[in-house]
Amino acid sequence: MNKRTTTKRSRTNWAKIDALKDNEIDTSDIPEQKKAFFKHAVLKFPEPKTAVTIRLDRQVLDWFKAKGPGYQTRINALLRAYMEAHKS
Fold it and tell me: Would you state the pLDDT for residue 2?
């Protein structure tokens, strides 16, 4: 594990995970990809976000923040859904 990216302590037993051998990992719920999948696969990187300043009602911001980490992502998702619904 590298640098911590969160202030919450993980409850995952990483030592146990790290000790697993490849053949001990259950992948039965993951379908195997055939050559055709990779032949047509396209690598797409997400578009970078743009930092902006936006004025929101304090109650709106507090409500989003109260839902936990990722409130900016949720605000973006809501705005994106609105944008998609109103495209002409």
Answer: 58
User: What value does the mean pLDDT of the chain take?
Assistant: 91
The residues, any chain, with a CB within 8 Å of residue 76's CB and separated by 6 or more, are: 49
- For 13, phi then psi, to 5°, come to -85, 85
Alpha carbons 74 and 18: distance in angstroms, whole number: 32
Positions of E strands within the chain:
none
Task: Annotate the chain with DSSP letters as a single string.
Answer: --S---SSPP-S-HHHHHH--GGGS--TTSPPPPHHHHHH----PPPPP--------HHHHHHHHHT-S-HHHHHHHHHHHHHHHT--
